[in-house]
Amino acid sequence: MRFELSEDQQEIQRTARELLAERSSFTQVRAAGEARREDDALWAELRDLGWPGIAVDEAHGGSGLGVIELAAIAEELGRAVAPVPFLGTALAGLVVQHDASDGDRERWLPGLASGELRGAVTLPGDAVPVPGASDEGLVVVAGADGPQLHAPGSGVAVAVDAIDPTRGHGRVTVAGAAPRDGGPGGGLDRATIVVAAELVGVLQRALEATVDYVKDRKQFGVPVGSFQAVKHEAAQMLRDVEVAKVLVANAAWVADAGDQAKLSEAAALAKAAASAAGRRVSAQAIQLHGGIGFTWEADLHWLFKRAQIDAVLLGGAGHHRQRIARYAVPRAAAAV
Amino acid sequence: MRFELSEDQQEIQRTARELLAERSSFTQVRAAGEARREDDALWAELRDLGWPGIAVDEAHGGSGLGVIELAAIAEELGRAVAPVPFLGTALAGLVVQHDASDGDRERWLPGLASGELRGAVTLPGDAVPVPGASDEGLVVVAGADGPQLHAPGSGVAVAVDAIDPTRGHGRVTVAGAAPRDGGPGGGLDRATIVVAAELVGVLQRALEATVDYVKDRKQFGVPVGSFQAVKHEAAQMLRDVEVAKVLVANAAWVADAGDQAKLSEAAALAKAAASAAGRRVSAQAIQLHGGIGFTWEADLHWLFKRAQIDAVLLGGAGHHRQRIARYAVPRAAAAV
Amino acid sequence: MDLTFTPEQTAFQEELRTWFAANRPTDPPDDEDAAYQWRRQWQKTLHGAGLAGVHWPKEYGGRGATLSETAIFFEELGRAGAPLPADVLGLLLAGPTLMVWGSQEQKDRLLPTILDAEESWCQGFSEPDAGSDFGAVKTRAVKDGDDWVVTGQKVWTSGAQYAKWCMLVARTGDPAEAGGPAKHKGLTYFVLDMESPGVEVRPLVQITGSPEFNELFLDEVRIPDSAVVGGVGNGWKVALTTLMNERAGLAFFLQVRLRQQLDALVDRAAGAGGTDGVIDDPVVADKIADLHLRTEALRLLAWKGLTAIERYGQPGPEGSLGKWLWSETNQQLVEVAADVFGSEALIDGEPWAYELLRARGNSIEGGTTEIQKNIVAERVLGLPRV
Amino acid sequence: MDLTFTPEQTAFQEELRTWFAANRPTDPPDDEDAAYQWRRQWQKTLHGAGLAGVHWPKEYGGRGATLSETAIFFEELGRAGAPLPADVLGLLLAGPTLMVWGSQEQKDRLLPTILDAEESWCQGFSEPDAGSDFGAVKTRAVKDGDDWVVTGQKVWTSGAQYAKWCMLVARTGDPAEAGGPAKHKGLTYFVLDMESPGVEVRPLVQITGSPEFNELFLDEVRIPDSAVVGGVGNGWKVALTTLMNERAGLAFFLQVRLRQQLDALVDRAAGAGGTDGVIDDPVVADKIADLHLRTEALRLLAWKGLTAIERYGQPGPEGSLGKWLWSETNQQLVEVAADVFGSEALIDGEPWAYELLRARGNSIEGGTTEIQKNIVAERVLGLPRV
Description:
Number of strands of chain C: 8
Structural class of chain A: mainly alpha
CATH superfamily of the largest domain in chain C: Butyryl-CoA Dehydrogenase, subunit A, domain 3
Helix content of chain C: 40-55%
CATH topology of the largest domain in chain A: Butyryl-Coa Dehydrogenase, subunit A, domain 1
CATH class of the largest domain in chain A: Mainly Alpha
Number of strands of chain A: 8
Oligomer: heterotetramer
Number of domains of chain C: 3
């Protein structure tokens, strides 16, 4: 029982954090966001480093690592609000690899792993702007009967300007109900965990920025962070983030340990916690910054906006809580 | 538009408060609660003053006043946690008067109005300990097809020791679903409002006791009420109480104005607000008293325990919110 | 208890409904400057009907409406889906403040052009390092002959780019008093002519992308002594008058707007599930019921507060609670909307997406929620300041 | 990441499961004194199997279990539905404190009778006017020859009626220091023999009706100088050792108990609607899912905290968050139970009614939620104290 990343995993995370601190500072995020243009140079660099294919099988051109490593990278990209089409591409890779046919794997995985082909994943019946969804990429609709793969040029995705302007989004309107489980091979579950991991990174950054601000900012002659109300709200932010973190870490571990029986429940727990925290923590970060936090200049809004999308992508907190309740019943029946 | 009690109504409330301050102090409540025996002398006195029949038609031996006056008295009895079988008797009077047949009115109202006959009201399918329900009294089960009246000796009520030991309760197990509306003549709606009014009285007392305590009690060398966290929690208590208060006042007014179309919605709003506040405020009162608040000696628990029962009697917050949602839809359709 | 209007109030309400139905403005233009001119034109239309300053005394060109009538006016304005007049700061804040504290000369010069929308106002109270703390104001005014020379910076000055006048609070006492025990003593309230040399307005863009507010930079701006309001060193008291006026009528307007947003949301939520005019998802129904409950409570609290003011001359706890409850409710509403409306709440330029972002400001602007809770605890419940 | 047990840990877990299955205690008697003796007997049974002090070093008669093994022990104890040993204060607090600070003589005399349940302990830290504020301790100890003469009052001393010994903190310095800047300096930690003349224990009844705690009155009680632990004036440091030990193993026990309560609730909620093993009411399902989420998070936080201690020698933020999250979750659980179980949660003597009342103490005992949040903000996030 060791509840922390291994040395190798920590090294991956540290490297990602250092690279993105340099290459995806708020100045750079702002430049991309204000122009509504992803950072192609950064994306090329990440492709060269093999990030899009980190969890794709080696047979299909990836690095063959697990959800833990992919989640660590997604968390860092979230923390940096990196303006690249990483998330959708990585999610599509997971669903194709675990839930699709051999033929589809061979057809699509090499492109997704290299990042040459962009990808996106969404649920049927959902109207959320989908990061990465475009007519130039592969659009995966993860339905109750397994994933439908919409090839580039299918017209299923219509480009939209989402409130998060730091990456491209598409609207994908396909009827149907969201699946109750997490994909025939657990691919959708894994994708759900990775969205939650990105969200945790966003929130961790929002918390850190807030703590730094309230230590520094003075009002009524003292740092605002010395007011008990501010302290307690910051403590609540930390609690929300920590709860999401341990559930995401657990889910990633369950995925890589291959414990298929527990995967759907673990994924639903991770996403429900991250989605709920996503709205609360990103909003509270603005609140504790006061008027400054509400300005375009303050950079918090990049975090807030990405958090709003991630919070509903592949199902919001309410959707996953209904799933959790279904898993709770047999568990209780077994225990009582 | 005058959002306060009239002079006459204020006089009724003031008289009730003064009498109960004298006759239902915490010392007296404690004596009754620890012995699990209602205060018969106080009940006799209230009967002599005509309280049980305040809202019963004069034709049936009551005073013919309205829900506003009855709610004002119920609020004071709640504030005093008075150990008398007033609530159930008054509720039964309302339902019989507004929802029952002429024959039943003539048969039951005089006894209820004088307090010679005790009463109780509950919903079918509900398993809540019902204040006043006993085999010696009239038990009203307010169902979807109107009230079923169970005469004394019917055996429908089984005496139980509820967590609130200051008055008698019975368990009434009758199958069926709770009605969506509030009784054919609005009697059940009126009863619901009066429960909410009693609850508001309980909470108002809990708030006042808490504010007094935190002003007085010192820790770390200053009154605990000077800590911002305590201030904000007390402010939240006030807000909860004020929201419940205005909705109860409005519902009582709608009832007496005879606006049948708006009555069910107003009653549901009042009870949903009072029930939600009931749990939060009574719990927070204990919290802000610290360890002392958790002792038998501190008297807060009489308020807490009565609040728990009132919060679920005739439907809890969740039940009434589902009703409110039904009323919200046609309202929105008319407005949009 | 009497929750009905008097016959006079009902007549006024009906008069307003008829008038708003006949004079409903066209849809606003997209362009920001054009939208301002459109709201200015709307104010002129209101003024033409004697409705620009219903709460202003007749001697100043108003209608002399009672508090209740003023409340009815703002409820009906909101219910008609009509915008607030362009110079709401002049009508609600500057005008009433000048009526109390202004010299005869100031009243004669400044009041008429507020009503007819010829000259509009902005408010120069907040500063970058002051936030909610008035005593920390650093903008300095130094006497030089018959003038004051003013240097400093203000923030959150909405409408500054269109304003002719600014309600300006500056420090005329010892600068060292800022933040100290005598921090409120050295403040003075001025009327600043925004066309004076040394005044610079820079837009401050919000997270919505709109420059709803501005920063105001003052570099040795000369203000004549005759522009002091209420006397030198009396600025804190004068400013309090302004602040007390801030939410009187607006509470009714905001409450009705909230009701309209909620109705639109409920209509969609019911239609989405779409069987028989109920909300099919009980979890959504539960949340919407709570929003409905809060919105109804806000309406009742506003009226209860008015009763307290009319009968006892001072507000009850309702006013202080209202801002807090309103902002929280509006923020919850936009989150439920994001669930119910899906994409529409997350795509730039869609009204619900704007609301989702804009609502974050509700608990900050006009006194943060933390400040509102302090006020409730200290001034309503009487808890000790420390 | 590795969330599996080592083969040794799995073996220990299996050993415990087997042992608990074979040695599950009978149902507790209703009578309070009899119930205490029943728990004392249970501790003797544990001791007979070497399980009373698994975390105690072997030199003191323990099993020398690692932190992880200790966690496994408390998880399995809870999972078996077995009670905590009678003298949990001696085993978790007094024993470990004496191991650090006690004299050889104290260890020899006091440690063995903790393990075998021959003598039990209570804790004399809190006072009526001190609450969470250690520095406000007023109980005085004055040196008189070889003895200390102690007078004062303590509260919340659970188990005092059965205790032979009390961990007592009293003020040996200037009484004027209480609450002052040097408030922690004049404190001394004593082992008090509860059979000494002048010791009076009065039961303090809780809102549940049970006298779970006591008040402890000390009237010129004589304590020999040899009963000082860790030196005169060093009481604050010694007491901190006691407090640091307070929740180590208990977190795992409480987390598992919460899981059991929740499972019972879920089972009932699913049975109540009763169609196909799902919870039919989506609003209840939503709440139960959140409880399930929190309970699972508590389990993971507890293990994450253990990793931090094992690897870095100090706890991460998990410990401070755990108490707060646990108490809030348990309080939410009993409210959902009141909705799901109806009457059973509102009738005196029913287990769920007891839980409903008892849960209110969770956010007060062992440091209020307000204090926990302060700790998280100041010690974990590093926000300034003032």
